[in-house]
Specification:
alpha/beta, 5-stranded parallel sheet
């Protein structure tokens, strides 16, 4: 079971997040704090596996708490919960496991709990990618990318929630991300094997379904795609 501490200077926000976490079978004890000072006292008295931190709090902010616990012998996993994206870069510089935007959706929170569970089971910290969106710098996890689409000298990273344009050619990503389970299916597409749900061989050309999107497979890449998907037990159908 994962024991957690929820920290927010607004009590309704604490109670709402604690309620959502309490519905997850992987969560054990849920402690609560409504200030940074109270949170540090709670952590000193009862170590936990993860801390869900609001960033904007008076006196001692969520970032201050993250810095304070980073040097401890067994620091808890940190998930920031905030109403804006302005501090995403700082958050991941502090090795945050995740960055949740308010209002927090139950399915998105469940993904955060899953990431905490993976780390507890000996998993490694995720590869993070810096992206710009609407003038805001964000950090996204590479394992959240379902597929990549070529757009000239740029590449568009698609996730379940959004897409992001980065100035890296698709061919470069193909080489850099091969060991992370990404394969080229077409001159315009690179897909994450773990997000492929089906493969289809049809008269109008083969394709794969990735996170609900149907993407073409070129004749050139078809043998490799079939081999890789065969290893994951995904078989083509007509």
């Amino acid at each position: 079971m994962i024991n957690v501490l929820v920290v927010d200077d607004e009590l309704p926000a604490v109670e709402e997040l604690a309620f959502l976490l309490g519905r997850d079978d992987r969560i054990g004890t849920v402690l609560r704090a409504t200030s940074g000072t109270e949170a540090l006292r709670a952590l000193a008295a009862s170590p936990v596996d993860a801390v869900f931190l609001d960033i904007h709090m008076p006196a001692v902010s969520g970032l201050d708490i993250a810095r304070a616990i980073a040097g401890s012998r067994n620091p808890p996993a940190v998930v920031f919960v905030t109403a804006d994206e302005d501090h995403a870069l700082k958050a991941f510089e502090l090795a945050a496991v995740d960055y949740l935007l308010k209002p927090v959706r139950a399915e998105r929170l469940a993904r955060s709990v899953g990431r905490i569970s993976e780390l507890r089971d000996g998993g490694t910290a995720p590869e993070m990618i810096t992206v710009d969106q609407g003038g805001t710098t964000r950090m996204i996890r590479r394992d959240d990318v379902t597929y990549v689409q070529a757009q000239g000298d740029y590449a568009r990273l698609h996730t379940a929630d959004a897409s992001y344009l980065i100035r890296v050619p698709l061919a470069d990503l193909e080489q850099q991300w091969a060991d992370a389970g990404f394969i080229r299916t077409h001159r315009s597409y690179l897909v994450a094997l773990k997000h492929v749900t089906s493969m289809k061989l049809a008269a109008d050309g083969p394709s794969v379904t990735v996170a609900g999107a149907g993407l073409p497979i070129s004749r050139r890449h078809l043998p490799t795609v079939r081999e890789k998907l065969g290893a994951t037990r995904i078989r083509p159908h007509a």
